[in-house]
Specification:
This protein is of the alpha/beta class. It contains 16 helices and eleven strands.
Length: 381
């Protein structure tokens, strides 16, 4: 039976690949959502004919409504419109690929509506992990990871008895600056930071990969998805990006998932789980790869990873503060207003300034996020 799919963040790297996967895996696209890339969103709406398209930016939504006036596609606007798209009755699965904490409310809306959540937005679990996992448990819905690393962990755990997971081996490419020391990174440019060695991704996640913040966010995400504390999650720099991550079981067995660095495979697995279908992703030749290497990350130079590990160990609103500060700092770097090393400095200061608390609500998460962003901006003005 054809299933309905809502894609939030449809104009981004994950969203566009997900539409390719949906077209070949028997999904009917019933809703799309994006921020303001109206040209591409219009083309997607005309190709897939969803019932609803939501645009975060109100002015862009008005423009799109005019452009799609000759169709039956409904256009909604603002965060409310995106949440409506996430709750559409026709949607069986909601893929949340919105960048940043903006994906949190739509993720909760999808869960509350009883939708299976395919999650590509790691900030949702980083900032609001306790809220999201509790909501999913109450609603009895599944959260299926789309990140290549978390998908690899999820795939490796298929058939593993409950309680048998001992440790997670979370792999990292190391980004474009692996092996360099802090003094060598003082004058690196935005263009250099955006040259990822293995993956083609959006700007924000590519910078996060360069600072190792992305891996820190993934540690926090893994804590919430798989129920292990941060000290049971070992980060390994694996330059080839072939082993996407692995699990160690209580008997010492290590099970991992390997493949080419192509996001279409984890996207498809989340959308078709538990089935496996033919996928257009390239096939892996181990003889061509030849050698796989694994090294410890340098958390003295790439401090963002350590900041995240300490934030999730402290718990409360520290992860939300780290995430918010990073989003603000990365934006400043992309605007050429700060240097590369200043990203970690600003994130560390804002995270340290966040008061410890054991009470986490949706309102407090957004308040911590806003305060961390403000601290970053005030530090640079």
């Amino acid at each position: 039976m054809e299933k309905g799919l809502a894609i939030l963040g449809s104009t981004g790297s994950i969203g566009t690949q997900a539409l390719d996967v949906a077209a070949s895996s028997g999904y009917r696209v019933v809703a799309l959502a994006a921020n303001r890339n109206i040209g591409l969103l219009e083309a997607q709406a005309r190709q897939f004919r969803p019932r609803c398209v939501a645009v975060m930016d109100a002015a862009a939504a008005k423009d799109l409504k005019v452009r799609l006036a000759d169709t039956q596609v409904q256009v909604a606007s603002g965060i409310e419109g995106v949440c409506e798209a996430a709750q559409m009755q026709e949607a069986d699965v909601v893929l949340d690929a919105i960048v940043g904490i903006a994906g949190l409310r739509p993720a909760l809306s999808a869960i509350e509506a009883g939708k299976t959540l395919a999650l590509a937005n790691k900030e949702t679990l980083v900032a609001g992990g306790e809220l999201v996992t509790a909501a999913a448990k109450r609603a009895g819905v599944s959260i299926l990871p789309v990140d290549s690393e978390h998908s690899a962990i999820f795939q490796s755990l298929q058939g593993v008895p409950e309680g048998a997971l001992s440790r997670i081996l979370l792999t990292a490419s190391g980004g474009p600056f692996f092996g360099r020391k802090a003094e060598e990174l003082e004058r690196v440019t935005k263009a250099e930071a955006l040259k990822h060695p293995n993956w083609v991704m959006g700007q924000k996640i590519t910078i996060d990969s360069a600072t190792l913040m992305n891996k820190g966010l993934e540690v926090i995400e893994a804590v919430h998805l798989f129920g292990l504390p941060a000290e049971k999650i070992e980060v390994l720099v694996h330059r080839q990006s072939v082993l996407h991550s692995a699990v160690e079981l209580v008997d010492g067995a290590v099970i991992g998932q390997m493949g080419t660095p192509d996001m279409r495979l984890p996207i498809q697995y989340a959308l078709t789980y538990p089935k496996r279908l033919d996928c257009p992703a390239g096939r892996l030749s181990l003889t061509e790869i030849g050698t796989l290497t694994f090294e410890k990350p340098d958390t003295d130079t790439f401090r963002c990873l350590r900041i995240c590990q300490e934030a999730i160990a402290a718990g409360g609103l520290k992860p939300a503060a780290a995430n918010g500060a990073n989003e603000a700092a990365v934006q400043l770097f992309l605007e050429d207003k700060i240097g590369f090393l200043e990203i970690a400095e600003l994130v560390e200061a804002a995270t340290a300034a966040q008061e410890a608390t054991s009470t986490v609500t949706l309102e407090s998460v957004f308040a911590a996020d806003a305060l961390a962003r403000r601290r970053v901006l005030e530090a640079k003005h």
